[in-house]
Amino acid sequence: MITNEHIEQFIAQAHRVGDAGLTVCSSGNISWRVGDEVLLSGTGSWVPVLPKEKVAVCRLETGEVLNGVKPSMESGFHLGVLRERPDVNVVLHFQSPYATAVACMSEQPKDFNVTAEVPCHVGAEIPVIPYYRPGSKELAAAVIAAMKDHNSVLLRKHGQVVCGKDFDQAFERAMFFEMACRIIILSGGRYGTLSPAEIDDLETYVLGKKTP
Q1: pLDDT at residue 65 in the model
Q2: Is residue 49, in this structure, part of any structural domain at all?
Q3: Considering the domain boundaries, does residue 96 fall inside one?
Protein backbone atom coordinates (compact mmCIF):
# COMPACT_ATOMS: atom_id res chain seq x y z
CA MET A 1 0.00 0.00 0.00
CA ILE A 2 1.50 3.31 -1.10
CA THR A 3 1.55 5.87 1.71
CA ASN A 4 2.13 9.60 1.73
CA GLU A 5 5.59 8.88 3.18
CA HIS A 6 6.41 6.76 0.11
CA ILE A 7 5.34 9.59 -2.17
CA GLU A 8 7.40 12.14 -0.27
CA GLN A 9 10.46 9.89 -0.41
CA PHE A 10 9.97 9.34 -4.14
CA ILE A 11 9.70 13.08 -4.76
CA ALA A 12 12.87 13.74 -2.75
CA GLN A 13 14.80 11.20 -4.82
CA ALA A 14 13.48 12.66 -8.06
CA HIS A 15 14.69 16.10 -6.97
CA ARG A 16 18.08 14.58 -6.08
CA VAL A 17 18.37 13.31 -9.65
CA GLY A 18 17.55 16.75 -10.98
CA ASP A 19 19.92 18.51 -8.61
CA ALA A 20 22.74 16.29 -9.90
CA GLY A 21 22.07 17.43 -13.47
CA LEU A 22 20.95 14.01 -14.66
CA THR A 23 17.68 15.37 -16.06
CA VAL A 24 16.60 18.72 -17.47
CA CYS A 25 13.01 20.02 -17.43
CA SER A 26 10.78 17.22 -18.76
CA SER A 27 13.62 14.92 -19.84
CA GLY A 28 13.92 11.59 -18.06
CA ASN A 29 11.69 9.63 -15.71
CA ILE A 30 11.96 7.49 -12.59
CA SER A 31 10.10 4.58 -11.01
CA TRP A 32 10.13 2.78 -7.66
CA ARG A 33 8.63 -0.60 -6.78
CA VAL A 34 6.84 -0.75 -3.42
CA GLY A 35 5.40 -4.21 -2.95
CA ASP A 36 3.02 -4.95 -5.82
CA GLU A 37 2.71 -1.30 -6.81
CA VAL A 38 5.00 1.15 -8.59
CA LEU A 39 5.42 4.90 -8.26
CA LEU A 40 6.27 6.62 -11.56
CA SER A 41 6.90 10.20 -12.54
CA GLY A 42 3.88 11.40 -14.48
CA THR A 43 3.78 12.08 -18.20
CA GLY A 44 5.24 15.46 -19.07
CA SER A 45 6.44 16.03 -15.51
CA TRP A 46 9.71 17.74 -14.69
CA VAL A 47 11.71 15.29 -12.57
CA PRO A 48 13.90 18.02 -10.97
CA VAL A 49 10.82 19.70 -9.46
CA LEU A 50 8.40 16.75 -9.44
CA PRO A 51 5.23 17.67 -7.47
CA LYS A 52 2.96 15.26 -5.62
CA GLU A 53 0.15 15.67 -8.17
CA LYS A 54 2.46 14.38 -10.92
CA VAL A 55 3.30 11.08 -9.20
CA ALA A 56 1.49 8.13 -10.75
CA VAL A 57 0.78 4.90 -8.87
CA CYS A 58 0.34 1.72 -10.93
CA ARG A 59 -0.08 -1.99 -10.39
CA LEU A 60 3.15 -3.72 -11.34
CA GLU A 61 1.65 -6.69 -13.13
CA THR A 62 -1.03 -4.95 -15.17
CA GLY A 63 0.11 -1.33 -15.37
CA GLU A 64 -3.32 -0.23 -14.14
CA VAL A 65 -3.24 3.36 -12.90
CA LEU A 66 -4.51 3.52 -9.32
CA ASN A 67 -4.57 7.24 -8.59
CA GLY A 68 -5.71 8.86 -11.83
CA VAL A 69 -2.27 10.28 -12.74
CA LYS A 70 -1.02 9.27 -16.19
CA PRO A 71 2.47 7.78 -15.90
CA SER A 72 5.44 8.65 -18.09
CA MET A 73 5.22 7.51 -21.69
CA GLU A 74 8.24 5.33 -20.91
CA SER A 75 6.32 3.41 -18.24
CA GLY A 76 6.38 0.38 -20.55
CA PHE A 77 10.05 -0.29 -20.01
CA HIS A 78 9.98 0.78 -16.35
CA LEU A 79 7.30 -1.78 -15.53
CA GLY A 80 8.84 -4.37 -17.84
CA VAL A 81 12.28 -4.16 -16.22
CA LEU A 82 10.76 -4.37 -12.74
CA ARG A 83 8.75 -7.44 -13.73
CA GLU A 84 11.80 -9.17 -15.20
CA ARG A 85 14.19 -8.20 -12.41
CA PRO A 86 12.97 -9.09 -8.90
CA ASP A 87 16.35 -7.87 -7.61
CA VAL A 88 15.62 -4.36 -8.90
CA ASN A 89 13.33 -1.78 -7.28
CA VAL A 90 14.33 1.48 -8.99
CA VAL A 91 14.59 2.33 -12.70
CA LEU A 92 15.98 5.67 -13.83
CA HIS A 93 15.90 7.07 -17.36
CA PHE A 94 18.09 10.14 -17.59
CA GLN A 95 19.77 12.45 -20.09
CA SER A 96 22.93 13.81 -18.50
CA PRO A 97 25.14 16.10 -20.60
CA TYR A 98 28.16 13.98 -21.45
CA ALA A 99 26.43 10.59 -21.59
CA THR A 100 23.80 12.05 -23.92
CA ALA A 101 26.54 13.58 -26.08
CA VAL A 102 28.02 10.08 -26.38
CA ALA A 103 24.55 8.71 -27.23
CA CYS A 104 24.40 11.19 -30.11
CA MET A 105 27.86 10.41 -31.55
CA SER A 106 27.89 8.80 -34.98
CA GLU A 107 29.79 5.88 -33.43
CA GLN A 108 29.47 4.97 -29.75
CA PRO A 109 32.47 3.67 -27.78
CA LYS A 110 32.72 -0.09 -27.68
CA ASP A 111 34.29 0.03 -24.20
CA PHE A 112 33.32 2.42 -21.40
CA ASN A 113 35.68 0.97 -18.76
CA VAL A 114 37.85 4.05 -18.34
CA THR A 115 38.00 3.74 -14.54
CA ALA A 116 37.39 0.96 -12.03
CA GLU A 117 34.04 2.47 -11.03
CA VAL A 118 32.53 1.56 -14.40
CA PRO A 119 32.85 -2.25 -14.27
CA CYS A 120 32.28 -2.20 -10.51
CA HIS A 121 29.06 -0.19 -10.60
CA VAL A 122 27.80 0.65 -14.08
CA GLY A 123 28.68 -2.64 -15.76
CA ALA A 124 31.67 -3.98 -17.69
CA GLU A 125 29.41 -4.21 -20.76
CA ILE A 126 26.92 -1.47 -21.57
CA PRO A 127 24.50 -2.38 -24.38
CA VAL A 128 23.84 0.31 -26.99
CA ILE A 129 20.23 0.27 -28.15
CA PRO A 130 19.37 1.56 -31.64
CA TYR A 131 17.17 4.62 -31.91
CA TYR A 132 13.46 3.97 -31.47
CA ARG A 133 10.84 6.65 -30.98
CA PRO A 134 10.57 7.64 -27.31
CA GLY A 135 7.57 5.96 -25.73
CA SER A 136 7.33 3.33 -28.46
CA LYS A 137 6.71 -0.37 -27.88
CA GLU A 138 9.89 -1.10 -29.82
CA LEU A 139 11.98 0.98 -27.42
CA ALA A 140 10.35 -0.62 -24.39
CA ALA A 141 10.97 -4.13 -25.72
CA ALA A 142 14.62 -3.37 -26.49
CA VAL A 143 15.29 -1.87 -23.06
CA ILE A 144 13.57 -4.73 -21.23
CA ALA A 145 15.51 -7.33 -23.22
CA ALA A 146 18.87 -5.62 -22.67
CA MET A 147 18.32 -5.09 -18.96
CA LYS A 148 17.47 -8.70 -18.21
CA ASP A 149 21.19 -9.19 -17.67
CA HIS A 150 22.61 -5.66 -17.62
CA ASN A 151 22.14 -2.78 -15.19
CA SER A 152 22.83 0.10 -17.58
CA VAL A 153 22.07 0.79 -21.23
CA LEU A 154 22.74 3.60 -23.69
CA LEU A 155 19.90 4.68 -26.01
CA ARG A 156 21.20 6.05 -29.31
CA LYS A 157 20.18 9.66 -29.98
CA HIS A 158 18.16 9.61 -26.77
CA GLY A 159 19.68 8.98 -23.34
CA GLN A 160 20.43 6.33 -20.76
CA VAL A 161 18.66 3.88 -18.44
CA VAL A 162 19.99 2.37 -15.22
CA CYS A 163 18.39 0.26 -12.52
CA GLY A 164 19.21 -0.64 -8.94
CA LYS A 165 18.08 -2.40 -5.81
CA ASP A 166 17.41 1.02 -4.26
CA PHE A 167 17.65 4.74 -5.03
CA ASP A 168 21.30 4.97 -4.01
CA GLN A 169 22.43 2.18 -6.28
CA ALA A 170 20.57 3.52 -9.31
CA PHE A 171 21.87 7.05 -8.61
CA GLU A 172 25.45 5.79 -8.24
CA ARG A 173 25.24 3.94 -11.55
CA ALA A 174 23.91 7.01 -13.31
CA MET A 175 26.61 9.26 -11.86
CA PHE A 176 29.48 6.93 -12.76
CA PHE A 177 27.96 6.42 -16.24
CA GLU A 178 28.07 10.19 -16.71
CA MET A 179 31.60 10.35 -15.28
CA ALA A 180 32.84 7.76 -17.77
CA CYS A 181 31.28 9.61 -20.68
CA ARG A 182 32.75 12.90 -19.45
CA ILE A 183 36.22 11.32 -19.52
CA ILE A 184 35.59 9.94 -23.01
CA ILE A 185 34.46 13.32 -24.36
CA LEU A 186 37.05 15.48 -22.60
CA SER A 187 39.88 13.17 -23.68
CA GLY A 188 39.01 13.89 -27.30
CA GLY A 189 38.84 10.17 -27.91
CA ARG A 190 42.38 9.57 -26.61
CA TYR A 191 41.50 7.42 -23.62
CA GLY A 192 42.53 4.02 -22.37
CA THR A 193 40.33 1.36 -20.79
CA LEU A 194 40.86 -1.40 -18.28
CA SER A 195 42.00 -4.69 -19.78
CA PRO A 196 39.95 -7.86 -19.31
CA ALA A 197 42.58 -9.04 -16.80
CA GLU A 198 42.28 -5.81 -14.81
CA ILE A 199 38.49 -6.14 -14.76
CA ASP A 200 38.80 -9.77 -13.68
CA ASP A 201 41.12 -8.64 -10.90
CA LEU A 202 38.47 -6.17 -9.71
CA GLU A 203 35.84 -8.89 -9.68
CA THR A 204 38.09 -11.08 -7.56
CA TYR A 205 39.44 -8.63 -5.01
CA VAL A 206 36.98 -5.71 -4.96
CA LEU A 207 33.61 -7.26 -5.73
CA GLY A 208 34.43 -10.69 -4.29
CA LYS A 209 32.75 -12.48 -7.17
CA LYS A 210 35.54 -14.98 -7.70
CA THR A 211 37.84 -16.98 -5.52
CA PRO A 212 41.46 -15.75 -5.74
Answers
A1: 97
A2: yes
A3: yes
* pLDDT for res 204: 75
Residues, the chain: 212
Show contacts of 59-66: CB within 8 Å, 24+ apart: 60/33, 60/36, 61/36, 66/2, 66/37
Over range 117-126, report the average pLDDT. Answer: 96
Any idea what the CATH number is for the domain that residue 16 is in?
3.40.225.10
**Residue 207's pLDDT band (cuts 50, 70, 90):** low
Beta partners for 152? 162
- C-alpha distances in Å from residue 47, one per residue of 43, 52, 156: 10, 11, 21
Number of domains in the chain: 1
Half-sphere exposure in the Cβ direction for 117 (13 Å, CA):
12
On the question of pLDDT at 89 being above 60, the answer is yes
